[in-house]
Amino acid sequence: MSQPALAAPAAEAASDAVGGGTAYIFNTLLFLIGGFLVMWMAAGFAMLEAGLVRAKNTSTQCLKNIGLYSIAGLMFWVIGYNIAYPNFAENSLGLFGIGGTTYGMQGVGEADLETGYSVASDWFFQMVFCATTASIVSGTVAERIKIVPFFIFVTVLTAVIYPVVVSWEWGGGYLDSVHDFSDFAGSTLVHSTGGWAALVGALIIGPRLGRYGPNGQVNVFPGTNIPLATLGTFILWLGWFGFNGASQLAMGTVGDVSDVSKIFVNTNMAACGGVVATIILTQLRYKKADVTMALNGALAGLVAITAEPLAPSVGQSILIGAIGGVIVVFTVPLLDRLKIDDVVGAIPVHLFAGIWGTLVVALTAAPDSGVTFLGQLVGVLLTMVWVCAASAVVWLALKYTIGVRPSEEIEIAGLDVHETGVEAYPDFARTG
Amino acid sequence: MSQPALAAPAAEAASDAVGGGTAYIFNTLLFLIGGFLVMWMAAGFAMLEAGLVRAKNTSTQCLKNIGLYSIAGLMFWVIGYNIAYPNFAENSLGLFGIGGTTYGMQGVGEADLETGYSVASDWFFQMVFCATTASIVSGTVAERIKIVPFFIFVTVLTAVIYPVVVSWEWGGGYLDSVHDFSDFAGSTLVHSTGGWAALVGALIIGPRLGRYGPNGQVNVFPGTNIPLATLGTFILWLGWFGFNGASQLAMGTVGDVSDVSKIFVNTNMAACGGVVATIILTQLRYKKADVTMALNGALAGLVAITAEPLAPSVGQSILIGAIGGVIVVFTVPLLDRLKIDDVVGAIPVHLFAGIWGTLVVALTAAPDSGVTFLGQLVGVLLTMVWVCAASAVVWLALKYTIGVRPSEEIEIAGLDVHETGVEAYPDFARTG
Amino acid sequence: MSQPALAAPAAEAASDAVGGGTAYIFNTLLFLIGGFLVMWMAAGFAMLEAGLVRAKNTSTQCLKNIGLYSIAGLMFWVIGYNIAYPNFAENSLGLFGIGGTTYGMQGVGEADLETGYSVASDWFFQMVFCATTASIVSGTVAERIKIVPFFIFVTVLTAVIYPVVVSWEWGGGYLDSVHDFSDFAGSTLVHSTGGWAALVGALIIGPRLGRYGPNGQVNVFPGTNIPLATLGTFILWLGWFGFNGASQLAMGTVGDVSDVSKIFVNTNMAACGGVVATIILTQLRYKKADVTMALNGALAGLVAITAEPLAPSVGQSILIGAIGGVIVVFTVPLLDRLKIDDVVGAIPVHLFAGIWGTLVVALTAAPDSGVTFLGQLVGVLLTMVWVCAASAVVWLALKYTIGVRPSEEIEIAGLDVHETGVEAYPDFARTG
Question: Which residues span the membrane (chains A, B, C) (predicted)?
Answer without folding.
Answer: 23-45, 66-85, 123-141, 148-168, 188-206, 218-243, 263-281, 293-311, 317-335, 347-367, 373-398
